[in-house]
Amino acid sequence: MNEVRVRIAPSPTGYLHVGTARTALFNWLFARQRGGKFFLRIEDTDRERSKPVFEQDILDGLRWLDLHWDGDIVYQSQRLALYQREAQRLLEMGKAYPCFCTPEELEQRRQALLAKGVAPKYDRRCRRLSPQERERWMREGRPYVLRFAMPLEGEIAFRDIVRGEIRFANRELDDFVIVKSDGFPTYNFACVVDDAAMGITHVIRGEDHISNTPRQLHLYAALGYAPPQFAHLPLLLGPDRSKLSKRHGAVSLNEYRRMGILPEAMVNFLALLGWYPRDQQEIKTREQLIAEFDLADVKPSGAIFDLEKLLWMNGVYIRRTPVEVLARLLVPYFAEQGWLHDPPTDEEQRYLLQVTPLVQERMRTLQEAVELAEFFYREPESYDEKAKSRLCREGVADLLLELSNRLDALTTFTVEQVEATVRQLAAERGMKAADIIHPTRAALTGRMEGPSLFHLMAVLGKERCVGRLRRAVAWLHSGATGTAQ
């Protein structure tokens, strides 16, 4: 069996799209499972739109997902001589021809066809020029493109790994441009030449490329190349089943990275966009994905990009992350708030390691940790409505003042001692511990949701807890108006 060789070939004309990342992952999984090679080709022949910042974003995104490629990166802009040589071969074989039609002329004919209700297609008039006319116009310096001379009869067919047999009538295909007037190749032409030169055995890409496949197959045949196998993946759809776009939310991989999605979670999530594992298990390690991935289990129907599912899955991975590792990931988010330095001081690191496990269970993204951990670093400026409701009940001010005095008297401030103090006070007052726990949480955090009260109190420490309780008492005595500070 020949070695499997696949590629991902993004254009650096925009930030790395999650759809392109999914395609890269499927190629990478296929190659790794088959013991093959995964190559990266940068299709940078669009000189106006290609930007270094987009290329860097593509490279950073693939590295973040740990989708490392084999060999050197292939740049199309460095292979112009190869494309020109192959284009010349097509010209000499009579399978390509120069077209001198101006963009204005082509647009006029296009509009005329549309007015008649006919699908616009090049009318092949330059294909009918005599050799003498072509030579004369070239001598005159008229700009021209090169077009492929499409067979006028018959059909082209191929078996798609995902979709089965697909056929196209040649009469429906136009004489498409293969080399632009500036000498640069078009997508279809460069793609075929490169895939052949790189020995690509399988082209795994989005279904929006199906219409390119018959044109590329004709080029393979004309140039004498053996075509690869094709697998066209389903498009990514939004929850409303329309094509995924910015109106559905973030579409660039880097946006999810900044949000605090873990790369392992993103890989797991992207793998399930179109591929349906036979055991229906959704949480899978990278090793499991490599072992189980099969293009035969990819369905042709559109794959829903469900943000809520991604957030759920990311939460699973966050909870599985060792505290020391997670704390390190949180540093840039907390440093941005001014809560610690990057890198943290020893004291900041010790405190961070105490805070992290208390927010870990409720986090779905790293960014969410900022809100969840805020009260560990900042005294609440106000109380939310639920917290106010708890604080403003009769007798709470006296209760919190007494609790603050008892806490202040503790010589050591552990989870066990804090809990014993609260429960002892409740017993003496003949009340449920919850009647103290809830207003205490409100006073310390400004909200009613959060981790175990006794654990968060132990992390906050005696000074913070006593100070916040007494400020809540002062706020209540002032008529429960103004800020909490």
TrEMBL record:
Where do we find the motif 'HIGH' region here? 10-20
Q: Which GO terms describe its cellular component?
A: cytosol
Q: Which domain of life is it from?
A: Bacteria
Its localization reads:
Cytoplasm
User: GO BP, one example?
Assistant: glutamyl-tRNA aminoacylation
One term of GO molecular function? ATP binding
Entry's Gene3D superfamilies?
1.10.10.350, Glutamate-tRNA synthetase, class I, anticodon-binding domain 1, HUPs
So what EC number does this one have? 6.1.1.17
* Positions of the Glutamyl/glutaminyl-tRNA synthetase class Ib catalytic domain: 3-312
Instruction: Spell out the reaction equation it catalyses.
Output: tRNA(Glu) + L-glutamate + ATP = L-glutamyl-tRNA(Glu) + AMP + diphosphate
Locus of motif 'KMSKS' region: 243-247
- Which residues hold ATP? K246
| Ranges for domain Aminoacyl-tRNA synthetase class I anticodon-binding | 326-472
Which keywords does UniProt give here? Aminoacyl-tRNA synthetase, ATP-binding, Cytoplasm, Ligase, Nucleotide-binding, Protein biosynthesis
Q: Look up the coiled coil feature and give its residue ranges.
A: none
Entry's NCBIfam families? gltX_bact, PRK05710.1-4
Known function: Catalyzes the attachment of glutamate to tRNA(Glu) in a two-step reaction: glutamate is first activated by ATP to form Glu-AMP and then transferred to the acceptor end of tRNA(Glu).
Indicate the family of this protein: Belongs to the class-I aminoacyl-tRNA synthetase family. Glutamate--tRNA ligase type 1 subfamily.
- Description of how the protein assembles with itself and partners: Monomer.
Q: Which HAMAP family match?
A: Glu_tRNA_synth_type1
Write down what this protein is called: Glutamate--tRNA ligase
Organism, by scientific name, is: Candidatus Fervidibacter japonicus
Q: What is the lineage of its organism?
A: Bacteria, Candidatus Fervidibacterota, Candidatus Fervidibacter
What is the name of the gene encoding this protein? gltX1
